[in-house]
Amino acid sequence: MSDNMKRRDFLKGAATGVGVGLLGAMGLYSYSPMREGYFPETERKMTDIGMCRSVKVTNISETSWFENGVLMGDIKGAGGLLVNQYDYNWPPFGNGKGLGKGSYDEGIAKIKHLLPNRLEEAWDIIEANSVHPENAGGYAALVEVEEMSGNKRKFLLDVGWSYKWCDECFKREGIDKMLENKEIEALFFSHEHFDHFWGLPVALKYDPDITIYIPEGFYPEGLQYIKDCGHTGKLITVKNGLNKVIPGMASYVFAIPIICRVYGEQSLYFNVADKGLVSVTGCCHQGIIRFAETAYNEIKYENDNCHGIYGGLHISPFDDWDPKYDDLVISLGDYGFERIGCNHCTGVLCAKKFIAAGYPVVEGTAKFRSKDKAYLGNGDTITFG
């Protein structure tokens, strides 16, 4: 971790976070500067990824599902978090056999002939055969990068889940027209999870030829789904580690197992002129500490400064607070972020704790079914640089 990063005093952290009890102190110690005395020295790679002038993120949809209780009830009823996501019988792969008795092959066979153009017809079939289709939403974001020349380039990060909801969101934010006009040059998938990936036909309806980047680790069903959705463009599997995209922008694939039999997560890093590092993530299953430390160890960026972070930070996705999460809230202050935009699996309760801690959270408008202004919600934007 950089010497010039802002550190919170150990006892001050205890007073504002977990508490000064023995267990709380142990948790705080694990995120305090004191712990670094036991870490081996790490030589920074300082890879030059170039520089960009600014980054703007538009939240197309952060509402992956509408009711936590419904989703968790489905997961528990189907056998738990280690069950293959394609077996839950969630949309769009419903086969009519009920919770936990799903099948990719049986589900896709009912709608494949309608993809990607006849989504309304497909959704009617999906609703009739799937478990809780009304609870499906999705996560998707538009990332606009301004190059040093002033040229602007657009990318999609994820495409959501529900065809019905995501098509509505795409039209609301003008993503449909951008895709039709070939203004968006590529689609990056953070990972294979249902709420980030299964809405793919909505994007392909408007541009079936778009280049797609997926992290290494997609399962056979996911790879087949890309084909079954009617994709005709380049499919690029990004290897684990750091991968340069354009000047000032790189992705990083973390080789990690994730719930619901998903593997690997791809996040985005930007080096913004005069500002520093900007980190954009879908879910951050790798954890915010590993996300920040990886950038420090791997990338050269302006002023050695962590300027901003955006996305789902995966701390309390179901607002089920655990005392250990307080450690993460406290540790986030160590990185000196100057702009924080959180939503999706961050958890509303966690976002409010960030605000209470005095962190520079950019709040939203709580419109289009986003639940709280502590989030950068549906239709909201954040700019870095």
Automatic annotation (TrEMBL):
It comes from the Bacteria. One of its GO terms (molecular function) is hydrolase activity. The keyword S-adenosyl-L-methionine does not apply. Keywords: Hydrolase, Iron, Iron-sulfur, Membrane, Metal-binding, Transmembrane, Transmembrane helix. The keyword Membrane applies. The chain crosses the membrane at residues 12-31. It holds the Pfam family Lactamase_B. Residues 179-218 form the Metallo-beta-lactamase domain. PANTHER family: METALLO-BETA-LACTAMASE SUPERFAMILY PROTEIN, METALLO-BETA-LACTAMASE SUPERFAMILY PROTEIN (AFU_ORTHOLOGUE AFUA_3G07630). It is found in: Periplasm. Its main location: periplasm. Heterodimer of a large and a small subunit. InterPro entries: Metallo-B-lactamas (IPR001279), Metallo-beta-lactamase_dom (IPR052926), RibonucZ/Hydroxyglut_hydro (IPR036866), TAT_signal (IPR006311), TAT_signal_bac_arc (IPR019546). This is MBL fold hydrolase.
